[in-house]
Amino acid sequence: MASRKATQPIHEFPLIRQLQRRYERRSPLVRKGIGDDAAVVSIPAGDWAVLTTDLLTEGIHFDLRTTTPMSIGHRAAMANLSDVAAMGATPRFLLVSLAIPPTLRADDIHALYRGLMSACGQHQVHLIGGDTSASRQGLFLSLTLFGTTPKNRVLFRSGARSGDGIYVTGTLGDSLAGLRLLTNRRPSQQGTALKKKARDFLIDRHRHPTARVQEGLWLNRTQLATAAIDLSDGLSGDLRHVCEESQVGADIALATLPISPACRAYADAHKIDPATLALAGGEDYELLFTVAADDEQKLERQARSRGFLVTKIGRIRPRRFGLQSLASDGTRTPLPITSYRHFTSRMKHSG
Ligand SMILES: Nc1ncnc2c1ncn2[C@@H]1O[C@H](COP(=O)(O)OP(=O)(O)OP(=O)(O)O)[C@@H](O)[C@H]1O
Ligand SMILES: Cc1ncc(C[n+]2csc(CCOP(=O)(O)O)c2C)c(N)n1
Ligand SMILES: [Mg+2]
Question: PurM-like N-terminal domain: from which residue to which, for each copy (predicted)?
């Protein structure tokens, strides 16, 4: 969907100057942004810095035949914002590194930045620098996001305790269903039973995910969450990280997983259980968090009054029980790992 013709060659320094003119904003915290050997920022006294980086690789994280440069920029920003959100921190400064193949034009890079910066603009994140290189083959995009949080105030993966309720924001499985709609090469098998509105919704959830920054800040500020993680690889794998770091087990009640009407319609049309999409689906960028049993009512009340969608999906158990799925009739079975794994699961997810 990007132009594959090199009609408008890229010149490194004019491109950087244009990006600086368009996207650099003044901030009292930015002492030096784009233009020196490194950026210099000051952070509020006593705050802790929260740092994350994410790499997006053509063919692995996106396919230029089925997506747009603007969506790639948006998703890259949201992937990083989501990690800062999962720590309960405020995102502040962004570094962007690009390796650009000869097939892309300057216009494509500007579209990518429009997607990036519109996502960052929602959270007052400042672009402070980056790096630009040519690539012989494929587009690579690496973002580093710098956030802050008051000292000692942070949501770790390691704080879950036996008895805590397990919650997620939003709905699960939409992004994977959207990706499958985009990449399935046999449209005759998928289009008929699914209304255009549902199809558009799922594709949009894949192309334009929303990082739950406000929710993360709320959970941290109120100290209602004992642990948190963002769902980038898929529930079945990401929950496992929380359990390993917290040295606990978990029950997940499959019937309670929040599934959007569109994802349910997709699952019906394909005769699959929507829970399999929710467990496997990566890139939803929802938050999974745990809450002490005594705080659950308070959490649910506050979520309602703030307009945040949160759903209880299970409970933390002692480590010896491992991770189990709990059926409506009370039977338990081990929760299989079906989430995205680099080096093994690419075809399964895109096919
Ligand atoms: N190549 C690496 N070198 C050093 N540390 C790494 C490397 N890759 C990952 N890590 C660290 O491992 C931990 C888990 O990383 P991972 O990328 O799985 O995070 P994630 O939030 O689950 O996924 P993602 O942000 O990529 O969607 C993080 O602390 C990360 O900084
Ligand atoms: C073309 C194409 N094929 C497959 C996928 C699915 N996918 C790729 S990486 C990933 C997990 C998150 O990555 P990371 O852990 O690196 O943040 C997922 C779910 C996609 N988005 N595009
Ligand atoms: Mg993460």
Answer: 35-148
The CA–CA distances, whole Å, from 233 to 15, 205, 212, 274, 338 equal 33, 15, 16, 17, 9
CA of 233 relative to ligand 3 center, distance in Å: 8
- Alpha-carbon distance of 213 to 223, in angstroms, equals 15
CATH 3.30.1330.10 fits 12-150, yes or no: yes
Res. 323: pLDDT tops 90: yes
Instruction: Assess whether the C-beta atom of 130 lies below 6 angstroms from ligand 2.
Output: no
**Banded model confidence at residue 207, pLDDT cuts 50, 70, 90:** very high
- The span from the CA of 138 to the CA of 59, in Å, is 8
Q: Whose CA is nearest to atom 18 of ligand 1?
A: 233
Is the beta carbon of 266 within 6 A of some atom in ligand 2?
no
Ligand 2 proximity of 238 Cβ (cutoff 6 Å): no
Q: Which CATH architecture has domain 157-350?
A: Alpha-Beta Complex (3.90)
**Count of helices and strands (H, E) across the chain:** 11, 13
Residues 250-308: tens digit of each pLDDT? 999 999 999 999 999 999 999 999 999 999 999 999 999 999 999 999 999 999 999 99
Amino acid at 235: L
Ligand 3 ion local residues (Cβ < 5 A): 83, 230
Tell me how far the alpha carbon of residue 272 lies from the centroid of ligand 2, in angstroms: 21
Q: Chain-centre distance of CA 147, in angstroms? A: 16
Domain ranges of the chain: 12-150, 157-350
